[in-house]
Amino acid sequence: MSIADSATTSGAPARRGRPGYDREGLLAVAVQLFNEQGYDATSVADLAKRLGLTKSALYHHFSSKEELLAVALEAALGGLEAVLDEPGAREGAASDRLRHVLTGATDVLVAQLPAVTLLLRVRGNSAVEQAALERRRVFDHRVTGLVAEAQAEGSVRDDVDAAVAARLLFGMINSVVEWYRPGGSVDGDRLGADIVRIALDGLRTA
Amino acid sequence: MSIADSATTSGAPARRGRPGYDREGLLAVAVQLFNEQGYDATSVADLAKRLGLTKSALYHHFSSKEELLAVALEAALGGLEAVLDEPGAREGAASDRLRHVLTGATDVLVAQLPAVTLLLRVRGNSAVEQAALERRRVFDHRVTGLVAEAQAEGSVRDDVDAAVAARLLFGMINSVVEWYRPGGSVDGDRLGADIVRIALDGLRTA
Fold first, then answer.
1. Is B194 on the interface with A (CB under 8 A)?
2. ipTM reported for the complex, 2 dp
3. Chain A within 8 Å of B37 (Cβ-Cβ)?
4. Which of A17, A131, A193, B157 qualifies as a FRET site for A122, CA 20 to 30 Å off?
C-alpha cells in the first residue's frame, strides 16, 4: 500500500484542496492506528490527526470509521477465503490440499499482516465485527473438514480431534502476527514451508 | 480460585464490615474483568462495582490496580518458568526435555487460563508490564536454546530455524487461550499431548 503524497506523512495538516492520501494509503494508516491503540479506542478525530487531514477530508474517502474497518477486514478475510477456493485446495489428496491451505494462508497473513492483525483482534462489538467473526467460524469449519477428510483417507493421524488440530494449526499460523516483522531477521517467504514442516512432518527426526 | 461469599457475586454492594471476597477470589474477578474490557480501560471504580465492594474495601486487599496485575502476571509467569526448572526439563535428551516443556507449559496454560490470557495481552504500557515482557523474552530464549540443543543432538530437524520453531510451537500453545473453555467439548488434560503429537511427530501418517 502506497502513500500518494509522502510530504503529508510528517503529520503536518494538509490544508490545500487535494488530500495527501489516496484511499488505499489512508486505509493503511488507519489500520496501523487501529492496531496500535485498538479500534474501539480510536476516534475519527484521532485518525484525522494521525493523517494530518481534516475530518471532512477524511470523510471524502470513507463514510465512517466502520467502513474503514469493513474494508480492512474484507482484505484479510477475502484473501484467506480465496485460498480455500484455489484449485490446490479443491483438487487432489486431502493431505496435499491441507498443505496448500496452510502455506497459502500463511502467505496471505505475511502479505496482509496489518489487516490480518486487525481481524484477529476483532471481538464482536458491532455488526461489522460480528459478520467477520462469523466468516472466521465458516473458514475454521472448512479447515476442520479438510483435516477430517485427510484423516478419513488415512494420510493424517486420527488420534487428534480434527477441530482441535485445525485450531492448533491456525494458532501456529496466526501467532505470526505477534512476532513477524517485514524486513526483520525472519524470511516471510519461508514461513509457510516451515509451518508445513512442523505441522505435517513434525520436528523430530527419529 | 474460590469466592468466599457467593452472596456478593450478584453485584449488590457489601456494606457490612467484612468484605465478601478473600484475596484470591478478588484477584480472580479482577483478572476476568481485565480480560473482558482490557487492563488499561478498567478503573478501580469499575472493579469495585463488579465486586460489589467500596473502593476502600478493595484497597484493604490490594494497594493498587497495578498490584492486581503484578500478582496475576506472577502466577502465569511463575508457573511457566517453574516448568523449565523441573527435572524433566533439565535432565535427559534434549528432545525429551522439549517434550516435557511443551506439555508442562500447556498444562500451566489450561490451569491458569485467565492469568495466562492476561499475560498474552500485555503490551508494555507500565513498568510491571515491561518486566513481564522481559520475562517472556527470557522464557522464549530458553525454549529456543532447548530446540537448538535438540537440533545439535540430531533429534530435531535443523531445516527450521530454532527461534522460529520455538515461536511457532508457543504460537500453537498460546492459541489455546483463544478457543479453549473449561467444561466445553475439548478435554484440557489432552491438549498437551495433542500439541506434542503435532509438534514432534507431525500430523501426517505417511
1. yes
2. 0.87
3. no
4. A193
